[in-house]
């Protein structure tokens, strides 16, 4: 087990989860992640070695671990107080831009009849505002896409930075989710984690997972 604990998830009964780092191994079902906004709903366990493309999984299958692989992107784990479902979301800058977290909340409400106010969402270790520097072009696109989110953007003479954790937090709040926790660890600053920006490897990532008993 890793040390990156969520207070909110740890107190929910019948949930097992962790946010992984370089040392963590996990046996969990993961999607073929493509930096898009497709939400996959699983109502039965997929056959072994089945490949499904997408960046968000939600399921109510018991004793079935779902995972998300990241190296700077945001892993977001979801459930509710009665652990009636679990979700694992991969939100990098593209997923954030396309608001994959909002699409996930909508699908949870429709498919599992869980109201946003009852959802618990935890944003795990990922690149933080200290390190997510972007070029002028991307910065402009984000500011236009999120016109009310001034506090998520830092524009100095030398650099432009975006706070992806905060954008996802504000999106969750806008959706009516009240139980939100953000783990502050930055994957680029903290050498315990793989970081795409720091290591430049597309093949190294940590896994985070969740399941309901
Ligand atoms: Zn950092």
Top keywords for this entry?
6 helices, single chain, three-stranded antiparallel β-sheet, alpha+beta, six-stranded mixed β-sheet, CNF1/YfiH-like putative cysteine hydrolases, 213 residues, binds zinc ion, 12 strands
Give a description of the structure:
- The structure is a single chain.
- It is globular and about 50 Å long.
- The chain has 6 helices and 12 strands.
- Strand 9 and strand 10 (160-162) form a beta hairpin.
- The longest helix is centred in the middle third of the chain and has 13 residues, at 100-112.
- 23% of the residues lie in helices and 26% in strands.
- The protein has 213 residues and is an alpha+beta fold.
- It has a single domain, classed as CNF1/YfiH-like putative cysteine hydrolases, CATH 3.60.140.10.
- The protein has helices spanning 7-10, 93-97, 100-112, 136-145, 164-175, 196-199, and strands at 15-19, 39-42, 56-59, 66-70, 74-80, 86-91, 119-123, 133-134, 153-155, 160-162, 179-182, 206-212.
- A 6-stranded mixed sheet has the order 2-3-6-5-7-11. Strands 1-12-4 form a 3-stranded antiparallel sheet, with no helix packed on it. It has a 3-stranded antiparallel sheet with strand order 8-10-9.
- Bound molecules: zinc ion.
């Amino acid at each position: 087990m890793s040390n990156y604990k969520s207070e909110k998830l740890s107190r929910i009964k019948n949930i097992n989860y962790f946010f992984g780092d370089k040392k963590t191994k996990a046996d969990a079902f993961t999607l073929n992640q493509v930096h898009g906004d497709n939400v996959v709903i699983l109502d039965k366990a997929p056959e072994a070695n089945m490949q499904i493309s997408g960046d968000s999984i939600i399921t109510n299958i018991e004793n079935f671990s779902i995972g998300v692989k990241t190296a700077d992107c945001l892993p977001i784990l979801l459930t509710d107080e009665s652990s009636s479902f679990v979700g694992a979301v991969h939100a990098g800058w593209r997923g954030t831009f396309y608001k994959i977290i909002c699409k996930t909340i909508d699908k949870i409400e429709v498919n599992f009849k869980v109201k946003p106010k009852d959802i618990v969402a935890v944003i795990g270790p990922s690149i933080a505002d200290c390190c997510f520097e972007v070029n002028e072009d991307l910065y402009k696109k984000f500011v236009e896409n999120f016109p009310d989110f001034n506090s998520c953007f830092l524009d100095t003479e030398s650099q432009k930075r975006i706070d992806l954790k905060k954008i996802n937090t504000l999106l969750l709040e806008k959706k009516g989710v009240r139980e939100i926790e953000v783990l502050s660890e930055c994957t680029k600053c903290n050498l315990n984690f793989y970081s795409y920006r720091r290591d430049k490897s597309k093949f190294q990532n940590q896994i985070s997972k969740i399941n309901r008993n």
